[in-house]
Amino acid sequence: MIASLRARTAFLVLLVPLSILLGSCANPRDPTMRRVDNDEALFWRANLDFMKGRYEEAREQLRTLVTQFPESPLIPEARLGIARTYFQEEHYEQARAEYERFLSLYPRNERVDEALYYVGLTYFRQIERADRDQTASRRAVVAFRKLLSDVPDTQYREDAEAKIAVARRRLATHEIDVGLFYLKRDKFNGAVGRFQGVIDRYNGTGLEPMAFFYLGETYAKMEEKEKAQDAFRQLLEKYPDSLWAVVAGDRLGVKVVLQSRPIEDQKNSDEETGGIWDLFKESWEDIKATFKHSLKPTPE
User: Which of 104, 44, 101, 34 has the alpha carbon at shortest distance from 72?
Assistant: First the structure.
């Protein structure tokens, strides 16, 4: 998939005549050879600069093309190239502005899906750790979904869907992160809102069992016994093979025995939450002890 994307998004998109190729490559330090006679020569030289990592020089060549040859059929490609040079330099705001300008100017161009994909990618590359602002995660999801909606048969579909999943999990992790922060400080209503939000909006992220468990814990601290038990019961019913089901069963007085250790629901949670998990280290040690006990074979 990666190889196909690289091939699809390769900057070099024009096979120029051999005479131009030879003429433009003969001696780039010779001032007479740097003189531009046509749009194809400019475009080719920009490609050479790009492939050698000289992104600013490539961008200058492309801007000259756009300015000096406004009627050239290469203008759309040149604008995409300008955007790509910014992206390669990790100037994501500038890159995004150029891609969005391309989409505004050429909404029916055959490379619209490429521009939409890179708009999403500029947001994706700016995603922060889960304990920080997640505006980029939300915007990445919106951008990639727009790509899938506008160009359903895009060859970027697989990668876009994978990145949507990553961004949604980061958003869900952030919600749990904030919920734990509120719970630690006895701000129970705020905690309930965050945990319930994961359950309602971030299904499929793998963090729902954790959200159900801490929703039940929060209600228990609020002395709303029925709501707490309901959260734990839902966890047992919907995710019976989750490690969180074991401790939920313990809260309900029900022994849950796992026949084999499943993939841990809390995988990478320490890294994703950026340290907030440490607030509950003591309770987590208790939970792990419960898991370990419950994994023992049931005596005959």
Answer: 44
Q: Is the pTM of this model over 0.85?
A: no
Longest CA–CA separation in the chain, Å: 92
Q: How far is CA 143 from CA 96, 139, 174, 282, 293, in A?
A: 11, 6, 20, 40, 46
Rounded to 5°, angle at Cα 140 from 137 and 141? 90
Q: Within 10 Å of residue 252's Cβ, how many Cβ atoms?
A: 16
Q: Which of 19-33, 191-205, 216-230, 236-250 has the lowest mean pLDDT?
A: 19-33
Through-space distance between the first and last CA atoms of the chain, rounded to whole angstroms: 51
- Give the integer Cα–Cα distance in Å for 281 and 287: 10
Token output for 158: 């697989």
Q: Are 228 and 194 in contact (CB under 8 A)?
A: no
DSSP letters for 145-157: HHHHHH-TT-TTH
